[in-house]
Amino acid sequence: MTSAQRAAALTHRLLAFSRRQPLAPENIDVNERVRSLEDLLRRIVGEHIEVKLALEHVECRSRCDANQLENALLNLCINAKDAKPDGGMLTLETSRVQVDSLDAHKRRDMKPGHYIAVAVTDTGEGMPPDVVKQAFAPFFTTKPIGQGTGLGLSMVYGFAGQSGGFATIVSRVGGGTTVTLYLPESGAIEANEIAAARAEPNFETGTGQHILVVEDDSICAPIASGHVDPDRLQRPSGGCR
């Protein structure tokens, strides 16, 4: 049961990264959503970290999955907490931004349009450039084995892309980290989604492929370490496959 639950969670995170998770978008006020998380965030990060909200003074509306937005922000805040064990400041900021064609040309996943930007900034240890380049990659993690899946930031990246936006990360060693979600602003969503749909890669499909799933839990060691008959993989009858 534990392995099945882990597999389900892993599948959900992979779907998020690949922009294929089921979403329930609705027109929301991003400022209100961020403000509603304030008390929870203070409890999560602890008293040694100061939480500050810097919200846009005008209404910031976007059409996205509110629950997934909250999950993404919680994920980012937990990462920020881990980056500053000795305390510091965590800032959540919202703003309305416009991306023009010149800016969009710099990134493949960036489309011109109007966006609501939600930035999570910490005063933690920061990351070197080589780590920043891989931060959104699935399964990449700097945490010790067993303490991270390497899918937290990739889920955030996938959610932003599936919502018609994008995500960025800026960090330097000793200077903290800022991860920003850009979500299409309500009223400009249709044009942004059309541009995003045109940029979706067209993957070829076929038949005859095989997927091998290997379980590395100790309970499965007798099977994983011994010879596995291909027929047993095709006709599972119990145990770990």
TrEMBL record:
<dbReference type="InterPro" id="IPR005467">
    <property type="entry name" value="His_kinase_dom"/>
</dbReference>
<dbReference type="GO" id="GO:0004673">
    <property type="term" value="F:protein histidine kinase activity"/>
</dbReference>
<dbReference type="Pfam" id="PF02518">
    <property type="entry name" value="HATPase_c"/>
</dbReference>
<dbReference type="InterPro" id="IPR004358">
    <property type="entry name" value="Sig_transdc_His_kin-like_C"/>
</dbReference>
<dbReference type="InterPro" id="IPR036890">
    <property type="entry name" value="HATPase_C_sf"/>
</dbReference>
<feature type="domain" description="Histidine kinase">
    <location>
        <begin position="1"/>
        <end position="187"/>
    </location>
</feature>
<protein>
    <recommendedName>
        <fullName>histidine kinase</fullName>
        <ecNumber>2.7.13.3</ecNumber>
    </recommendedName>
</protein>
<dbReference type="InterPro" id="IPR003594">
    <property type="entry name" value="HATPase_dom"/>
</dbReference>
